[in-house]
Design a protein that fits this description.
By secondary structure, the chain is mainly alpha-helical. It has five helices and three strands.
Amino acid sequence: MRIARALWALVLRAEKVQRLRRAWRAHERGMIVVCDRFPQNQMMGCMDGPLLSEWRESRSRIVRALARWERAPYDWAEAHPPDLVIRLDVAPEVASQRKPDMDLAEIRKRDRISRLLRYQPQTWVVPVDASVALEEVVRRVKALVWDAI
């Protein structure tokens, strides 16, 4: 189980590094970086956060190093935030209907965490009611992006 968790964390780390590099290159070219999810290091083990954070206290130097290495892109992301974060808010009951295979308690936990996440002062965080029809959500998001331009 421990090996599987480490492998999964490292796969996610590689994906995050790739996406962060692409986003930062776009930012450096003057583009506006918009996201609805972004790596974070405030809530460990969930919601796009490091999965191996508890390993930082391990007796093993290798395990501690692995945890530090996994966390590096999350720390980098905090120092290089997006321009606009669109927080898609949906009532847990609606989310449960849309994803019936997901536990309602887990959905509530994720909702609570997403509202607690904080970004740098220059990041514009905008909640969007995602309980409405998809077409309406897309319209609202496009308007927000246009306002950011």
